[in-house]
Amino acid sequence: MHAFDVLGDPVRRRLLELLADGERSAGELGAVVQEEFGISQPGVSQHLRVLRDNGFATVRAEGTRRLYSVDPAPLREVDVWLERYRRFWTQRLDALGTELARGKRERRMRGGTDSPADAGHADAPDTPETTGRTGGRTGAAPSEETAGGR
Amino acid sequence: MHAFDVLGDPVRRRLLELLADGERSAGELGAVVQEEFGISQPGVSQHLRVLRDNGFATVRAEGTRRLYSVDPAPLREVDVWLERYRRFWTQRLDALGTELARGKRERRMRGGTDSPADAGHADAPDTPETTGRTGGRTGAAPSEETAGGR
DNA sequence: CCATTGTATGAGTGTGTGCTTATATAGATC
DNA sequence: GATCTATATAAGCACACACTCATACAATGG
């Protein structure tokens, strides 16, 4: 399973977000994620397994608890892959965002026929709304990126 | 479809890699990717559609050709998400890598009870080998990250 | 106008993956 | 040692998605 496949699942992304703040027991993680996504305990456990098996998390036992921590190695891989695109938004138009960049590129390449009609709106491509699950009550501010159905 | 889902597919990642160097026609992209992954033209076209539909690529028509370009917006989103983990490998042990970081964290947190038996192995989670497809002949050096079966 | 090239879409199929319920294991507590 | 909590695994099912082949559409050239 590739790093991006692992990150493809919103539950796993959320788990990693929670782990970003430090070590957490499977139970704590489960509580949050079950609440937010409405999945069962085994469901969460399986996601944790995927994180383990793919090197995104390490575990240590403390009594009957399993304490999970982030292992950043695969995330760093992702970061490396992304490096080649970073110039697209780091290149002097940092603040103006990619919308501008696109418009500019298009203008540069063609006669200028294209309608600049929609040039003025946000850069969020698909307006990340709330998650579509059952118990949509967020208890601890999941990142916007995490939201979005499977 | 979430950004990470789009990037979950190795063919799409490869297409984006090719587009990183600049505009490319669907045909050029197809040639490379069909060779490397052994998939059909419609297959490639469908992947391009996914990239389009999710804002990773923009197209312009030139005659009968379709010229694709990267739209970095969703990639930037991914970059933003990753930001919270960057400290894990930017934090002074840049060169030494995460292996050290993990060892250090473990040492810091436990009394040393747990078996340190498997503590010494590599950080590559699944040794990125050649892609498992049919026509495995690489013509233009796909990034290691791209490899890995679906 | 017909053929040819370049590309997209539609329909149908198989497989992987994410879920569920049920159960196993292991440490804590009485 | 029985029971309770914490977590993992097993088995089974469903659905999404990445393929395939066939076909449509659009521009270009004879």
UniProtKB/TrEMBL annotation, chains A, B:
Gene3D superfamilies: Winged helix-like DNA-binding domain superfamily/Winged helix DNA-binding domain. Residues 100-150 are annotated as: Disordered. Residues 1-90 form the HTH arsR-type domain. InterPro entries: ArsR-like_HTH, HTH_ArsR_DNA-bd_dom, HTH_MetalResp_TranReg, WH-like_DNA-bd_sf, WH_DNA-bd_sf. Keywords: DNA-binding, Transcription, Transcription regulation. One of its GO terms (molecular function) is DNA-binding transcription factor activity. SMART domains: HTH_ARSR (SM00418). PROSITE patterns: HTH_ARSR_2. It comes from the Bacteria. CDD domains: HTH_ARSR. PANTHER family: TRANSCRIPTIONAL REGULATOR, ARSR FAMILY, TRANSCRIPTIONAL REPRESSOR SDPR. This is Transcriptional regulator. It comes from Streptosporangium minutum.
